[in-house]
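TICKET: design request
STATUS: open
ATTACHED STRUCTURE:
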């Protein structure tokens, strides 16, 4: 069975669709995108909340431009790169393309990464009051970083210290350790071209387009406020199925 299908198995296990007896033959891609497998479709999925939903942390105009212009362009350019480089989105996992990104063009790297990162980013946030991690993820955070506050501090520093454009990450390494780091541009920890390697669990966009309208040069304030909209339930599901 292909890795594409193993992704579906994980999805089914997580949602209980199989238990409910629902056929998956015609599972639409929007469902396949699900929370855990976020980013594994090649097309832009609907934003899981409205443009105003994360205010005041992220203002509506920033959300709208970010989603409908920036992220949308990554998805469009990724489709072009797939056509040019003979990647069939119906029989390929985006994560597998990213894991072998050194074999593809800069266009594939920038836009495959850009699309994956943003699809993940939208899911990493949610409206309402932020919860704290619990269960196995909470234990792992304490074990790896000493405390949740220490973890957040290290992650925030990774975002603040990323020079220019890029991302801060909490990842699960192949040897099952939680590690924090950052990548430049639209690179991510799945890529075979980066030093930081593992499954991204939580990602923060620190490109200026993610915060400049509201925060201007104050990236640290954006990061501080961002913790109030982090969707730890999503991060926890990623951790449990990684
Ligand atoms: Mn962005």
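STATUS: resolved
RESOLUTION: sequence designed for all positions
ATTACHED SEQUENCE:
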């Amino acid at each position: 069975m292909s890795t594409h299908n193993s992704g579906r198995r994980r999805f089914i296990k997580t949602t209980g669709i199989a238990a409910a007896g629902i056929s998956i033959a015609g599972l639409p891609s929007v469902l396949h995108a699900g929370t855990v497998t976020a980013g594994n479709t090649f097309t832009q999925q609907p934003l899981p909340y409205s443009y105003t939903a994360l205010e005041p942390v992220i203002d509506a105009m920033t959300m709208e431009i970010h989603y409908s212009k920036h992220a949308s362009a990554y998805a469009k350019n990724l489709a072009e790169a797939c056509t040019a480089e003979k990647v069939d989105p119906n029989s390929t996992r985006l994560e597998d393309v990213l894991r072998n990104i050194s074999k593809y063009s800069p266009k594939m790297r920038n836009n495959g990464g850009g699309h994956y990162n943003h699809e993940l980013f939208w899911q990493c946030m949610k409206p309402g009051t932020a919860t704290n991690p619990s269960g196995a993820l909470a234990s792992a955070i304490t074990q790896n970083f000493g405390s949740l506050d220490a973890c957040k501090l290290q992650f925030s520093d990774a975002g603040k210290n990323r020079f220019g454009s890029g991302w801060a990450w909490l990842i699960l390494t192949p040897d099952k350790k939680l590690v924090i780091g950052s990548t430049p541009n639209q690179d991510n920890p799945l890529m075979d071209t980066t030093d930081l390697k593992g499954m991204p669990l939580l990602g923060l966009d620190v490109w200026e387009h993610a915060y400049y309208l509201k925060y201007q040069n104050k990236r640290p304030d954006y990061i501080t406020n961002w913790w109030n909209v982090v969707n730890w339930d999503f991060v926890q599901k990623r951790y449990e199925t990684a």
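CLOSING REMARK: The chain has two domains: 3-123, 135-241. The longest helix spans residues 60-84.
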